[in-house]
Write a structure and sequence with these properties.
Layout (H helix, E strand, L loop, with lengths): L4 E2 L1 H13 L4 E6 L6 H11 L4 E7 L1 H8 L8 H9 L6 E5 L5 H7 L3 E5 L10 H6 L3 E5 L7 H10 L1
Parallel strand pairs: 1-4, 2-3, 2-5, 3-4, 5-6
């Protein structure tokens, strides 16, 4: 079985080889803290847009900076393993920046995907992908599925 959780240097080589074979690389990113149906919807739809789906996963320090001191709920090693176990995901790469701009610059995906809670104009890295002839896709939001909402419901109960 292929190693799905990769370091950036190894992933760049794998993607260069895949692109030379004419494969289309799709990229999405997120914290994926408490994996839920909304995440699955996003990843399934993203996979339909190309041959390889790469998921950029925010590191623990990055999640904490974005979501606050009580997050993430699950450590990055657990989140990476959960995402890598999904059949539609080909590769997972961790990043520590607050956003994936530098990672997208390094990987140069053909398609950049975000969930419907993002406006296309606000998608980080869209400029990079479009400048190389790639596309940006926004997958419609699957209402009722939010990690923050799940945590809030758990705290109330």
């Amino acid at each position: 079985m292929q190693q799905k959780v990769c370091k950036i240097t190894d992933l760049k080589k794998l993607l260069a080889r895949a692109k030379s074979q004419g494969k289309k690389v799709v990229f999405t990113n997120g914290c994926f803290d408490l994996l839920h149906r909304g995440h699955l919807h996003l990843l399934r739809e993203a996979k339909k847009l190309g041959d390889l789906l790469v998921v950029g996963l925010n590191s623990d320090s990055s999640v904490k900076a974005i979501k606050g001191p009580n997050r993430p709920i699950l450590p990055e090693s657990d989140r990476a393993e959960l995402i890598a176990a999904l059949e539609m995901v080909d590769y997972v790469v961790l990043f520590s920046d607050p956003d994936p701009h530098r990672l997208i610059q390094e990987l140069r995906p053909d398609v950049l995907v975000k969930g419907g809670d993002w406006a296309k104009e606000a998608v980080v890295g869209a400029d990079i992908v479009e400048s190389t002839g790639g596309t940006v896709a926004v997958v419609p939001y699957l209402g009722g599925y939010s990690t923050t909402e799940i945590i809030e419901r758990m705290q109330k109960n």
